[in-house]
């Protein structure tokens, strides 16, 4: 029966992460730890930066935005994944699937844009230190952050809107543990040409263009650092960028595998593992990466724990 959103499918069925019943208990415990770790780590980042005046700088302002994105991303995917490991069936309503698609797509776009903005912040800090306060003033930071959220919302609204125009006549078995654009397009019985064109344009902008901008920023940073004569000065400059560069490498490798090079992810099991990396592992590791080698964040964490006590 057709409805106002042009679909005959009222619910989809998500695959479990593993069909092996013997491994479900292990995966349930592992993914629960990942989820709790991601929530706790990113919540601590937000609290530490908010309560510690010494961290009220542009770099940590964008890190707070990144932590919020990670909390939303992992909360969009992992609760449903955990439920599917406990409850047999994995059914998700059409509206629930579109909602998950909306927030997941928004988080992916926002994270890619934030990583680019953070690379620009590091470029200004290392290459234009005398003009840093002017180029990264609070109005500029607010404009950059607002642009990130606005562009990501517009992007996900476009993708979700185009998806709701498609007809799903059956089957309704999604070959994944979450609702995302590529897997849903495989189930549509309507032409998906427009969707595919928009996906390519989004991939080029969010994936390729932003990646090139990050690489250009780091190219300038490396050139500037090499001109520093003292070894201590070089080490200090590189240390301010190492955490961000590690996060960029981890995140882009998984996103490129899934969206930019979909042919390489022909194995559904490999695709599930990679999706888990950017929806669960990366959000859990980001707070660790940014805090382990950062003395200011460690001090802020201690202050948070002392306040809790």
TrEMBL record:
Keywords: Cell membrane, G-protein coupled receptor, Membrane, Olfaction, Receptor, Sensory transduction, Transducer, Transmembrane, Transmembrane helix. It is a multi-pass membrane protein. InterPro entries: GPCR_Rhodpsn (IPR000276), GPCR_Rhodpsn_7TM (IPR017452), Olfact_rcpt (IPR000725), Olfactory_GPCR (IPR050516). It comes from the Eukaryota. Signal peptide: none annotated. Residues 41-290 form the G-protein coupled receptors family 1 profile domain. Putative odorant or sperm cell receptor. This is Olfactory receptor. It comes from Ceratotherium simum simum. Belongs to the G-protein coupled receptor 1 family. The keyword rRNA processing does not apply. The chain crosses the membrane at residues 26-48, 60-81, 101-120, 132-152, 204-226, 238-261, 273-292. PANTHER family: OLFACTORY RECEPTOR. It is found in: Cell membrane.
């Amino acid at each position: 029966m057709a409805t106002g959103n042009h679909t005959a499918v009222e619910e989809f069925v998500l695959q479990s992460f593993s069909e092996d019943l013997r491994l479900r208990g292990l995966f349930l415990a592992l993914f629960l730890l990942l989820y709790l770790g991601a929530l706790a780590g990113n919540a601590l980042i937000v609290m530490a930066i908010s309560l510690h005046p010494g961290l009220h700088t542009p770099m940590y302002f964008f890190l707070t935005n990144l932590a919020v994105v990670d909390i939303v991303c992992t909360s969009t995917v992992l609760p449903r994944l955990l439920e599917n490991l406990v409850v047999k069936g994995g059914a998700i309503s059409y509206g629930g699937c579109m909602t998950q698609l909306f927030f997941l797509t928004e988080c992916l776009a926002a994270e890619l844009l934030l990583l680019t903005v953070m690379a620009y912040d590091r470029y200004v800090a290392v290459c234009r230190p005398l003009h840093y306060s002017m180029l990264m003033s609070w109005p500029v930071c607010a404009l950059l952050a607002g642009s990130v959220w606005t562009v990501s919302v517009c992007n996900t609204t476009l993708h979700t809107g185009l998806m709701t125009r498609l007809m799903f006549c059956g089957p309704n078995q999604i070959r994944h543990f979450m609702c995302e654009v590529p897997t849903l397009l495989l189930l549509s019985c309507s032409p998906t040409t427009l969707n595919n064109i928009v996906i390519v344009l989004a991939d080029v902008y969010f994936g390729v263009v932003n990646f090139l901008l990050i690489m250009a920023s780091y190219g300038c940073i490396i050139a500037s650092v090499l001109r520093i004569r003292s070894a201590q000065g070089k080490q200090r400059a590189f240390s301010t960028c190492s955490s961000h560069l590690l996060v960029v490498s981890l995140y882009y490798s998984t996103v490129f595998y899934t969206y930019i090079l979909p042919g390489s992810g022909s194995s559904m099991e490999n695709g599930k593992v990679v999706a888990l990396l950017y929806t669960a592992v990366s959000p859990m590791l980001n707070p660790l990466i940014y805090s382990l080698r950062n003395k200011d964040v460690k001090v802020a964490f201690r202050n948070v724990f002392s306040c809790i006590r």
